[in-house]
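Reviewers of the previous submission asked for a worked example of the structure-prediction workflow described in the proposal, so we include one complete record here. The input consisted solely of the amino acid sequence. No template or homolog information was supplied to the procedure at any stage.
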Amino acid sequence: MRRVQYSLSILALGLSVGSALAADLPQAASQPSLLSPKPMTSPEWTITLGIEARYLPTYEGNDRYHWAPFPVVNIRRAGTIRPFQSPRDGFSFSLFNTAGVQFGVTAKFKMPRRAGDDPDLAGLGNVGFVFEPGLFAEYWPTQWLRTRAELRQGIGGHRGLTGDLSADVVVPVTKQLTLSGGPRLVYGTAEAFNPYFGVTAAQSATSGLPIYSTTGGIKAYGAGFQARYEWNERWATHAFVEYDRLVGSVANSPLVRLRGDPDQFQVGAGVTYSFDIRGLW
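From that input alone, the workflow returned the following structure tokens.
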């Protein structure tokens, strides 16, 4: 088993943002008419957009790594507290949120895996882009512990069910700095795993790997850690490390067992910017 050594140095970001003054519309000097229509107000929303740089395996199960960009997107009602978000979370929108319990919709995506991406994939063909819409649930039993579950349906390169279970201890060290971390579990069906870890008869003939099919169940267990710093109400930066140990039929895949590594790491850093808008709908 080849070991992967990596290091990440994060340069402290100094961000200074000029404050913008919003001027109210001038009011008429005369008393408004009773027939004047009352202006209708629409809900306000806070949008958070950002970008991450992640150092991760060139494909799932590989022991070679590369840098890749990832988007960060969050939508919440204006005036609400910025929600905790870990690198494992999908793009989420809450439909119900009260007393530490939250439900909503979520989504993830997987970029295509091409046979030309890595020499170890030669003869295995391509796996197309995958969109994974689904549902999530969160529960905060205390102010410092978040538990979360996601279940998503693959559309595209795979058509199976997959999901994540996680727990994070969330520690606000200062008003601006928050540290968090905890265990992870990834699960799914054979239909979600086979395109990435299975080997068909045709692929066996062209790749030299033995024929193999996966089964559903637990895909990996691991842990993650994140540090987040809020420079002001608009700008924030974060850095993280995530570890997965592939298990079960996924770890026994010849692509992992003969050419890869069941120990999978991710490190990354990102920056986000939040702004308010009126009336998404």
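Confidence is low (pLDDT under 50) at residues 1-40. We consider this example representative of the routine output the project will generate in years two and three.
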